[in-house]
Write a structure and sequence with these properties.
Organism: Paraburkholderia bannensis
Number of helices: 16
CATH topology of the largest domain: Rossmann fold
Pfam families: AMP-binding, AMP-binding_C
Structural class: alpha/beta
Shape: globular
Keywords: Ligase
Radius of gyration: 23 Å
Number of domains: 3
GO biological process, one term: fatty acid metabolic process
CATH architecture of the largest domain: 3-Layer(aba) Sandwich
Oligomer: single chain
Protein name: 2-furoate---CoA ligase
Distance between the termini: 59 Å
Length: 524
């Protein structure tokens, strides 16, 4: 299999004059971008990094970030991208855990880098006059005379590690996920195939390049000689301007960002007619948002992609509105199963319709081989050649997968296992509900009680929502016992609902008075 450096060379050779990268006023064709990438690759080696060394990158989605990613692939240097909002202790942990030999950052992340003792011991490349730097990005990018490097442009093989992605670490310290060039290329090829991308697609590069979705968008565009339009931090109006200005053809976002696009006042007048393909991942999309997006964009393809940093694709559904809630079937590089919730072996398979834990075959082309320096995490998640995802779900009678949540998010009330996603799907269809999250709150009698946290679009009270649930096909024991109206639903930087914050009371109540609670407080 080709390494990623040679993968990029394919586009340089096929379509040298095709626009490859846009970031504000910066616009580069493949032929223009290629020598810049090579210069940076050489600059990293001159900084002391060798093949297999790790480079920590704490940047927003800017052209320098995309350039560094590709330079690492050519130089055989392992890119370790980190959230630009990272706290000092997170920078400290990742520098130490990854054994980073250098760090690249910008002013927005400078304080965290400055407060990391480990970061102060390695070369620090600062962008935009970032304080505390030992050198600049301009010093990396300066054109050099490279007689040998011109012909010998790639120093990596398909078996070398391409990058290490750190998981969010919402329940503890983050886990490093090392992925080889072949894993990354297989994931990108699958992304192209499963989203039916054609040559010359154009996408919005807003999903962060420290997240698997952002990296996949970057690589996929190179595979099809396409355009990656950088959006440094999320802004719905700016995203709509980019779609119109650059005639973007495909979007791959988390549901939260789609919600923000539709909610922005500029959406009604924005020209989004060039967008023909929608894809989402990172979190389930509720039925209400699915319907609104389908009506707003009328896409020719609407893809629900379910996966993770560890194994890019678990399953894919290329017609997300046909069976709302369905994650479809295993991706082209994947095998998956649902095993019983308490299963220790991949052979303890759940029945059709029975909720269990979703597991994935580690022999798949996109699958990682184990966590970085985390034998404890390997012991928990890797069993007999299968990756135990920690996600819950079931197969229906047609063989389609439904993802119901996380094992840790499962609400156990009165001895019943209750999935938040089922309830959220029902409530999302109420016309007055803008966003909804459901969580289990400690209860002396039931163990946990089901509580729905609602961000309203129009006025509705708890009684109205309770009536809505009673009139739906939601079984009675899953019906929320309390409704809490909030200004916003807390989410991670990539749009995942943070139920633990809701359970801990870390939210802002709706500025309007709380509506009365429903009278039903027992399991009828």
């Amino acid at each position: 299999m080709l390494d990623l450096g040679r993968t990029f060379l394919q586009s340089v050779e096929r379509s040298p004059n095709a626009l490859a990268l846009v970031d504000g006023d910066v616009q580069l064709t493949y032929a223009q971008w290629y020598p810049i990438i090579l210069n940076v690759a050489v600059g990293l080696r001159e900084l002391g990094l060798q093949r297999g060394d790790r480079l920590l990158v704490v940047l927003q989605n800017r052209w320098e970030m995309a350039t560094l990613h590709w330079a690492g692939q050519f130089a055989g240097i392992v890119i370790v991208p980190l959230n630009w909002r990272a706290k000092p202790e997170e920078v400290e942990y990742c520098v130490t855990d990854a054994g980073a030999k250098a760090i690249v950052y910008e002013p927005v992340s400078a304080d965290s880098v400055a407060q990391s003792a480990a970061a102060q011991k390695v070369p620090r490349v600062g962008l935009d006059d970032a304080p505390g730097r030992t050198t600049t990005f301009d010093a990396l990018i300066v054109e050099r005379t490279r007689s040998g490097d011109v012909t010998d442009t790639t120093h990596a093989t398909a078996d070398d590690i391409s990058l290490i992605l750190y998981t969010s670490g919402t329940t503890g310290r983050g886990k490093g996920v090392p992925r080889r060039h072949r894993h990354e290329r297989a994931g990108a090829l699958a992304h192209v195939a499963q989203n039916l991308y054609r040559r010359g697609e154009r996408t919005l590069g807003v999903m962060p390049l420290y997240h698997t979705m952002g990296v996949r968008s970057l690589l996929a565009m190179a595979l099809v000689d396409g355009l990656f339009v950088c959006v440094r931090r999320w802004n719905a109006k700016l995203a709509l301007e980019c779609i119109s200005k650059h005639a973007l053809t495909c979007l791959y976002l988390v549901p939260t960002l789609y919600h923000d696009l539709l909610a922005d006042s500029a959406f009604a007048s924005a020209d989004t007619s060039s967008v023909r393909k929608l894809g989402f991942a990172g979190a389930p999309m509720n039925d209400g948002l699915l319907k609104r997006l389908s009506a707003a964009f009328e896409p020719e393809l609407f893809v629900n992609h379910y996966g993770s940093s560890e194994v890019y694709t678990f399953s894919i559904d290329q017609d997300a509105t046909k069976k709302p809630g369905s994650a479809g079937r295993a991706g082209i590089n994947t095998r998956l199963r649902v095993v019983k919730l308490d299963a220790l072996s991949p052979d303890e398979i759940a029945e059709v319709g029975e909720e269990g834990q979703i597991i994935v075959d580690l022999l798949g082309d996109e699958a990682f081989e184990g966590y970085w320096n985390r034998a404890d995490a390997n012991a928990k998640s890797l069993r007999d050649g299968w990756y135990f995802t920690g996600d819950t779900g079931y197969f229906d009678a047609d063989g389609d997968l439904y993802v119901t949540g996380r094992v840790d998010d499962m609400i156990i009330s009165g001895g019943e296992n209750i999935s938040p996603v089922d309830i959220e799907s029902v409530l999302s269809l109420h016309p007055a509900v803008d966003e909804v999250a459901v969580a289990g709150i400690k209860d002396e009698r039931w163990g946990q009680r089901v509580v729905a946290f609602i961000k309203r679009r129009d006025y509705v009270d708890a009684e109205g929502l309770d009536t809505w649930c009673r009139q739906s096909d939601l079984v009675n024991f899953k019906r929320p016992r309390d409704y809490v109206f909030v200004d916003d639903i807390p989410k991670s930087p990539v749009g995942k609902i943070l139920r633990r914050k809701l359970q801990a009371g870390e939210y802002t109540p709706d500025s309007n008075a709380q509506a009365a609670q429903p009278t039903a407080t027992t399991k009828e």
